[in-house]
Amino acid sequence: MEPDVIFMTGDFITSSSRRVEELGEVLGGLKSKFGAFACLGNHDIWNQPHRVRVALERHGIRVLTNEHSRVRCADGEIVVAGLDSVWGGYPNWAKARRGLKGDDRVLMLMHEPDYAEILTKDASIVLQCSGHTHGGQVRVPGWGALILPRYGKRYQAGLYRVGPMQLHVNRGIGTVDQHVRFWCPPEIACLEVTNIGRF
Ligand SMILES: [Fe+2]
């Protein structure tokens, strides 16, 4: 894909952080031009958030929790923000946006997609990238997901417009509970985002 930036939207572990160092090493090997960023998911926070964060950051992945980062790109800079999981933690956009300039446009990492209903109220956020749902893992053609998690009921998978903001929900590459997928393949999404930088 040769991406400019890599976004990872949380739930790196389900319940055990035993192999999270190996995971950090693998994910840290992904190459991008301007950096890799992550937010944590509810499972990370319910279990060992500190170990997950350390394992990722040791391998060059910046974990954003209620904060933002300016990313120097080829022609200017973009702003990437990340919030805490709403199911597992305490998202605080007021804190994360401190220091933003008036015309900054923000790419947001937020684990749970349904939080878009809140974030769409801030016009500076142009895109929210989420995970959490796995697309439902098991989908019925013509019907959709059989089971969806809390805070992942409204926006199951794919690209949505929520007010002036866009929301992308990736199906992720893993599974939770039953290790099965049906009509819902794992995915690494490639997004082309235009007209959002400060140039
Ligand atoms: Fe989750």
TrEMBL record:
Keywords: Hydrolase, Metal-binding
Gene Ontology CC: one annotated term: membrane
Domain Calcineurin-like phosphoesterase stretches: 2-135
InterPro entries: Calcineurin-like_PHP (IPR004843), Metallo-depent_PP-like (IPR029052), Metallophosphoesterase_sf (IPR051158)
Superkingdom of the organism of origin: Bacteria
Family annotation (SUPFAM superfamilies): Metallo-dependent phosphatases
Keyword Hydrolase in annotation: yes
Coiled-coil annotated spans: none
Organism lineage: Bacteria, Pseudomonadati, Verrucomicrobiota, Verrucomicrobiia, Verrucomicrobiales
Biological process, per Gene Ontology: lipid A biosynthetic process
Gene Ontology terms for molecular function: metal ion binding; UDP-2,3-diacylglucosamine hydrolase activity
Protein name: Metallophosphoesterase
